[in-house]
Task: structure prediction
Amino acid sequence: MLLTLFVTFFKIGLFTIGGGYAMIPLIEREVVDRHGWINREDFLDLLAIAQSAPGVFAVNISIFIGYRLRGVRGSVFCALGTVLPSVIIILAIAMFLGQFRENRVVANVLKGIRPAVIALILTPTIRLASKAGLNRWNWWVPPVSALLIWWLGVSPVWIIFATIVGAVMYYILKVRRV
Amino acid sequence: MIWIRLFWTFFKIGLFGFGGGYGMLSLIQNEVVEKQTWISSSEFTDIVAVSQMTPGPIGINSATYVGYKAVENAGMSRADAVLGSLLASFSLMLPSFILMLLISAFFMRYKDHKAVQTVLAWLRPVVVGMLAAAVLLLINPENLGASLTPQFFISIGLLVGAFLATYVWKVGPIKVIIAAGILGGVIYSFV
Result:
């Protein structure tokens, strides 16, 4: 099991090009669809948790899943699997391949990959939207938070913190009274 | 001692780097280029570019690269430089490791509590918006090419194709990335 966790996250780390968010479709595929380690609703909660903690988003996700499945040891294996591919590749680049960026074939391949990565993030966004419990009271939350982040450059961290504060106040004032 | 400074610098970056890789980059630049002067500003730009082109989280990529260069530029051996890169990556992960373990333990224990349930129900729509923002932020000339150039149209084609593949035909993301890479390599060697 520990080895499966390590190999799964090694694979995820190896194919994540363009930062943490690009990792979401890969993790969703491996962890939710293939292995069934967590369901799609829990995956959505996990994204919120990983985003509200400091540090590397993708590593945070892997730590959570590892801990949930196999405790502290599981989280160590998952985190190692996630970072090992990039550590090895960057080390090789730092040591030997000074001209990596100027290589024409590499540049062409990456020009093809970048637009595909956008589509790869769009797909789980739509899938997760149907699991987010949207109703006539909160349907405006996804577009407004997207605009705040994209247009006004608000950090997602602040939006998450504000939402947590709002939800806790709502709980204290309304839910607990009932 | 360069080792202690490497550890402390990247521990700090890991602790205060909220908001994912891109949020972390400005912090790394401030600590590594401005304060410690381990690498030059142009070297830093190179790291950002290399990070975007190679797999893995950007934070880990830059920590590995800076750790190597900082020790190498200090005039130490290559083996020491490799140690430096490992130390920097480890230090970067350490704070979030500790925090995430605490959060995970808390979450799993109180998952069914009414208050936690309320918070999660409120957060789910926000996360969807967060992901949508990530998509919007990536739609830029750097990723798609300048408007109305041949690269732009090829990029749109690849984007739509990749979306159909994953959303409609349920192709796995790794296959889509490999296919897009091969297509890019072939198409752009002619265009």
User: Anything to note?
Assistant: Chain B has two domains: 2-105, 134-191. Chain B touches chain A through 104 residues (CB under 8 Å).
